Amino acid sequence: MAIMQTMKYEAERDGDFARWATSQTGGENLRHCIQCGVCSATCPLSLYMDYTPRRLINLAREGFKKEVLSSFTIWLCASCYACRVECPKKIQVTDIMYALKRRAIQEGVYPKRFPIPVLAKEFGRMIFMWGRVNETLLVIDLFLRTNWFKFLSMTGLGLNLMRTGRMSFLPEHIQRKDELRKVLNALDAQEKKEAARL
Amino acid sequence: MKSFPMKYLYFPGCSLKGTGKAYEESLLAVFRALGIELREIEDWNCCGATAYMSVDEAKSYALAGRNLAIAEREDLDVIAPCSACYLGLNKAQKGLEEHPEIRAKVTKALAAAGLEYQGKVKVRHPLDVLINDVGLDEIAKRIKAPLKGKKFAPYYGCQIVRPFASFDDQYNPETMDRLLATAGAECVTYPLKTRCCGGSLTGTVPEVGLRLAYIILKEAKKRGAEAIVTVCPLCQFNLDGYQDQIARKFEAVDMPVVYFTQILGLAMGLSADELGLKRSIISADAVLAGR
To answer: How far is A44 from chain B (nearest CA, A)?
Structure first.
């Protein structure tokens, strides 16, 4: 049995990441967290997480960037908001999870071929293309990009949806796609300008 | 009750045009029968749901912003039946109010496409409208075929009560219970009424998501419900569509999962067909038995 370091030294922190985390929407009062664990207790997913929400919050605000961004925890958050309404310090845990997911996608550090970030990105691409999401096409796309084999296990569901007329292979789309793209592109342009200024 | 004719804008969202068609069919049928006009928001786009927040915050608000800007051209409340849309639109409005720096960005981007967002539209859930604008007394007058002896588990899911609970109790919502009682049905005690159904995890990480859906189904069965009644297209999809996979992994539950609008419609004497009851994967015949 090898002896391993099970806690972190302060010197291993990334102070910039800690400052970033506490400046995100919902993260403003991250420092107020008293580590009571109510978030972990109410979370219906915490029993599958590599770090419970309480531990993740602590790691994020202390600047343990790698652990936080490559965790499964942030992707397992299903946005049920149970933690947020229970938190005695009114920390917006769900929004912090969103901020961490965005950062993980930006830095490309999420677990390889893990379907959730792939779904989020495809979702975004579909909206840019069509303005609306066709669930059938989204799911097919997701499986092609992650796990072919799993796709086969879904054929029963697919046939059921077809039988009940709930499946469509035509992309739903808005009329003024240009209008929506103009809005999204304008935000990209603002973002670039902002990055150049810093 | 508000004065007739009542009129609302309607934000269907992607699911109600796809896997949640039965929700749209039953909602429109019920509102038509109540004499309420629902006008679909012109050229609405996807609300962004939960997935888009993981991609880009400002863009996520801008997606809602475009819809709200279009809606604001008319002086009507918006009805958003899908829980993700309902929360997405409300959350964007709150977020844009509380974060002036994001609002400035989004306003500018919308202006680039000739859109103006002021934040003056009210986005509401159909349950809220039925209970608070139409009123249970008025609805009771329209009940022609009460669902006597039927037992249901009223399932609200997450996003209409969390994080904001604007028209019902956050921990023990009861608007749907009252509506179902008005329709003549009985509601079983169902403590899981606001527990997560698994959201998109049923599809992305089934080893986790299926368990969450199974918990909801099993509890309803244990409590003696003949069907789960839901308000959300993703909850309906998870609980109805994955039952064969849940049967293989855990046990067969065989529990119909229907929308509250379908139950209300039945009690108002509308037909199973026009309410989309044939679109349930787990047959809703148990709900229809004896009619």
So the answer is: 7
